[in-house]
Amino acid sequence: ELSKLKQPRPRYSDEAPEGTAGSTFMVPKKEISMVPDMGKWKRSQAYADYMGFILTLNEGVKGKKLTCEYKVSETVEKLLDLLGTLDRWINETPPADQPSRFGNKAYRTWYSKLDQEAEALVLAVLPADKCAAAPEIAVYLKESVGNSTRIDYGTGHEAAFAVFLCCLCKVGALRVDDQLAIVFKVFNRYLSVMRKLQRTYRMEPAGSQGVWGLDDFQFLPFIWGSSQFVDHPTLEPRHFIDERVVNEHHQDYMFLDCIKFINEMKTGPFAEHSNQLWNISAVPSWSKVNQGLIRMYKAECLEKFPVIQHFKFGSLLSIQPIKP
């Protein structure tokens, strides 16, 4: 009789019509535990949805400046408040005195605050009829700010923030006409909070490829940032290594803002500390750069087991194979 009790109750979430109160949300969990599981990820609904989200935003920002006009919805304002709260907590949690330079322990104090408050923060962003999704979506917010054990941050954490935004789109909190604000306002603000975390707590790069990686911490702003430059009348890829160009245009272009941050954080010749970016500056056109970065992102981030093993899957980002 006991064996019957142990059987998990069947979940009928597939039958519940999309976006109704009947939707079954679930706390996301890890599904990719061994290298052979990677095929399951690449064939999943999650992979298709994630790449679709990244590419839709890539198209949306094409040829547009950060300073252009766009709609800012109430949800976007609430997301900026959420990120403002995370920022304020950094100010309230100064780095601890400790012998080792990297991985300041005060980060764990900061993180525990987020750990406790994440669900409430997400609830404040969601429309009332979608409050049931808060526990599921909050997981991705917590995953997006680095690892509190290792005190590191990398492209897997950045991807979790994109998933967080993708989930908000799936439940209808963010809409198609929020595209520009998602990248230019929300993601940009997220970047500035992450840079502050990295600087304040001297976070280690997670799974960094050293000088052979694109950047120690980020990848998406280079993709979307290169798209902003497509068909630019004067600025070409060769110009981004010119510090004068960077200082003059970084408020308008995400890509240049990333380069500016690298220049502030690293010493020595650019070609040595950022070899991949140096190589990219030789590519003739921004659309070639953009396409190349998307290919590189798939190969170096989304198809690498050390990154994807930490990914969590639920009802919104599903490990189920894509429907043929």
Name the descriptors:
mainly alpha, two-stranded parallel ribbon, 2% strand, globular, metal-binding, ATP binding
Helix percent band: 40-55%
Q: For the record, give the distance between the C-alpha atoms at the N and C termini, rounded to a whole number.
A: 39 Å
The overall strand count is 4
- Rough outline: globular
Largest sheet: 2 strands, antiparallel
Radius of gyration: 20 Å
Structural class computed from helices and strand pairing: mainly alpha
Separate helix tally:
15
How much beta, percentage-wise?
Answer: under 5%
Which strand order do you get reading across the main beta sheet? 1-4
Order of helices and strands: HEHHHHHEHHEHHHHHHHE
Ranges where pLDDT stays below 50 over 5 or more residues in a row are: 1-22
Mean pLDDT: 91
Protein name: Serine/threonine-protein phosphatase 2A activator
InterPro entries: Phstyr_phstse_ac, PTPA_C_lid, PTPA_sf
GO molecular function, one term: ATP binding
Region (Disordered): 1-23
Topology:
Blueprint: H1 2-6, E1 29-30, H2 38-42, H3 45-60, H4 74-92, H5 106-125, H6 134-143, E2 152-153, H7 155-170, H8 179-200, E3 204-205, H9 220-228, H10 243-249, H11 254-265, H12 270-273, H13 275-280, H14 286-302, H15 305-308, E4 312-313
Parallel strand pairs: 2-3
Antiparallel strand pairs: 1-4
Folded structure, characterized:
The protein has 324 residues and is an all-alpha fold. The protein is built from 15 helices and four strands. It has helices at residues 2-6, 38-42, 45-60, 74-92, 106-125, 134-143, 155-170, 179-200, 220-228, 243-249, 254-265, 270-273, 275-280, 286-302, 305-308; strands spanning 29-30, 152-153, 204-205, 312-313. A two-stranded antiparallel sheet has the order 1-4. A two-stranded parallel sheet has the order 2-3. α4 (74-92) packs antiparallel against α5 (106-125), α4 (74-92) packs parallel to α8 and α5 (106-125) packs antiparallel against α6. The radius of gyration is 20 Å and the shape is globular.
